Amino acid sequence: MKYLRPLIAAIVILATIAAIGWYFWGQNANGLPDGFASGNGRLEADQIDIATKIPGRVAEIRVSEGELVQPGDILAVMDTRELEAQLARAKADAARAASQVEEVRALIEQRRAEHALAEDEFARASQLAERGVNSQAVADQKKTRLVTTQAVLNVALAQLNTAERGVEAANALVVQYETQVADAVLTAPVLGRILYRLAQPGEVLGGGGKVITLLDLSQVYMEMFLPADQAMRTGLGAEARIRLDSIPYAIPAYVSFVSPEAQFTPKQVETADEREKLMFRVKVRLPEELVKAYIEQVKTGLRGVAYIRLAGVEDLPWPIEFVGQPIPADALPGG
């Protein structure tokens, strides 16, 4: 038994040496050339919740899960019968307020005519009083009438201001109901694919109630994590490639985001040592025109590796042995 212990120790030492050698060989064989960085991830796209702005009943939903929609496509419609009744009443109130303004304006013309007549009468009475033809009492009466007509005219002008503000308030209420009726039609804000139908026709939802979850395909990207030395050499717009596990080609992409602060990497990073490091989150985005060209094949969740060309090596060719062959030119938009 004592002879086996040195043998076991020797085997352990040889295994350790072999593992270390295999590790450094793998690092040299599989490491990217200087000037390139890589990280694993998966294709992602932002999710947009299409929700109601005001409480109401869902009248109809016009899309199904998995359906591709274009910006402006109608996704769902809310019941607007009550809103339309309120809108009709608001329009009637606005029309009545407008007619009241016209009535006050006519009244103002009448008051101005009365005031002008009172001015003429006071002027004549004052002249006659100065000549001694009429008494001063008559002139004072005309002056009193002049002051009264001026006050009545001022009241009419104030009524006009009030009536005009009433028209503005009534019109604002009309606009409010028209906006609510328009908001009852839920449309797609971006190019996307329906991920979930969260409500069904006939359901009553509160304000902000979610009806549909839409996957925004106008921005498809892969997140990766880079150490500080590589993140410092990664700029917005930097050239990138994505190689998915299920596609044998290198898909052209570019860097659309570099986090301004470091963070601990998530659990999907392969080794514990890497997870313990502070890394910088980077987004590598597919060009929108490329996504549109292959819109039926675009699937989020596909795993792969993103590669980035770091600053200062713009003339170096892409290492095809790592990144893979580029997508054929005739397969690209405009190719």
Provide an overview of this structure:
Helix 2 runs antiparallel to helix 3. The two termini are 73 Å apart. 43% of the residues lie in helices and 27% in strands. The model is unreliable at 14-30 (pLDDT under 50). It is built from seven helices and 14 strands. It has 335 residues and is an alpha+beta fold. A hairpin with a 4-residue loop joins strand 9 and strand 10. The chain has helices at 4-30, 81-131, 136-183, 228-231, 272-276, 288-293, 320-323, and strands at residues 36-51, 56-61, 68-69, 74-78, 185-187, 192-197, 204-205, 210-226, 239-244, 249-258, 263-264, 278-285, 303-309, 325-326. The radius of gyration is 39 Å and the shape is elongated.
Summarize this entry quickly:
The chain has helices at residues 4-30, 81-131, 136-183, 228-231, 272-276, 288-293, 320-323; strands at 36-51, 56-61, 68-69, 74-78, 185-187, 192-197, 204-205, 210-226, 239-244, 249-258, 263-264, 278-285, 303-309, 325-326. By secondary structure, the chain is an alpha+beta fold.
Task: Spell out the blueprint of helices and strands.
Blueprint: H1 4-30, E1 36-51, E2 56-61, E3 68-69, E4 74-78, H2 81-131, H3 136-183, E5 185-187, E6 192-197, E7 204-205, E8 210-226, H4 228-231, E9 239-244, E10 249-258, E11 263-264, H5 272-276, E12 278-285, H6 288-293, E13 303-309, H7 320-323, E14 325-326
Helix pairs in contact: 2-3
